[in-house]
Amino acid sequence: MDNKKNTLVLLKRMIKVSARIGTGLCIMILVWSCATIPGLKDEEPETFIRVPFVRVLLDENQSEATFSAQKAFAIECLTLGQQAVYHASRPITVYGHGRTLKVVGYTGLVIQEGVDEVNIIPRGTDNRIRVNDNMYRGIIQILPHGQNIRLVNIVYMEDYLRGVVPPEIGKRTEAELEAVKAQAVAARTYAMAHLQQYPNEPYDLKSSVYDQVYEGVRVENKLVNKAIDATAGIVASYQDKLINAYYHSTCGGMTDDISQVWDRKSIPYLKPVADNGACSWSKYYSWREVFTEKQLRGRIEQYIASDRGRDLRIGRIRDIKVLKRTPGGRVATLAVFTDTDIYRFHRDRIRWVVGRTSNPDLILPSDKFDVLIERDKNGRLRSVTFQGSGYGHGIGMCQCGAIGMSREGWTFDKILKHYYKGISIEKLY
Predict the structure, then answer these.
(1) What are the strands of the beta sheet with 53-62, ordered from one edge?
(2) pTM of full prediction above 0.70
(3) pLDDT per residue over 239-259, tens digit each?
(4) What's the longest Cα–Cα distance across the chain?
(5) Domain ranges of the chain
(6) Residue 274 and residue 346 in contact, taking contact as beta carbons nearer than 8 Å
């Protein structure tokens, strides 16, 4: 019951945030139940933001952005607690203006400047806000951020998932619908469990891999929307608390214990689980990266320089050994022996240390690998091959494994209970 109490607290916080998005919006506060969701409406009854909603950081590194909508939209400007509302049907641009904002119409006429906060609110049903080249459901909040602007999408949780699940699970078929449902439940659970993770920021989640990749309306598709609607409000819990629903692309045959991969405490439902080859169809089920001694030495020196903030020459590599593995078969400690010292690297950071020769901008696909060494006739190390399996950190649900299980007739709840041991599946709202 503690989890439901915590959820009610979150809902009350959401209502307070909703109330702050303009006095023209009327809050419909209903008693919390599994059936009816509190709503947020303006003067047109069809337009609303429903609870639970999520505040997603879209960007904070640009000095301006242009906004429009499929239909008319409202521009709410808040300055020193005072509100001014404008209505528009053509694009407007908001600029960072020192510690405030400047709102400019499509003709170049300044609508208002010295503004503390701007909210772009769609009017009417089936209306989407366009931010530069992408479209979003819900409301767009613009705040000053240094010399730039901060863009936050305030959106109903189910609509947020419509922009999350497609980039996370990829393009799927009807035969894989149960895997898409499992992904929807995992993503919803992750989002609900992380609504207060940035207590001093005006957002709950980031739209990148720091949380979950969120790309708005442009990635929506019918199959994913079908899966989201079919599982609306359903989450995964353990002992009446929302789980940390971590997931990754390909486990390579077995997931792992979170305490062995990251510097985290052990969690009962995030333990090593074999998927019996369900993800063997993935292109990352087997991979290899080959380095010359010089290339690998350069990668290690580059990592050490970025990690310690100073250049360091490690000397020629003489040998590489796996000193310890996780229960799931991933490398827990990798030792690099050089002419000058022994360097040890641990857990998931090994992927950043090694990287790839095939694409220097990417990290190693996974820590589940063997080290194959080739030497010259004098016994000096010539090249190192990392022969591996899997893609990602290996914690929680294997997405390709879930897809493989779905093809075999597994239901979404069975898939989730396979990867997250001892959990319950429940409808939260």
Answers:
(1) 82-88, 73-79, 117-122, 139-145, 148-156, 53-62, 205-206
(2) yes
(3) 999 999 999 999 999 999 999
(4) 82
(5) 2-159, 163-282+393-427, 287-388
(6) no
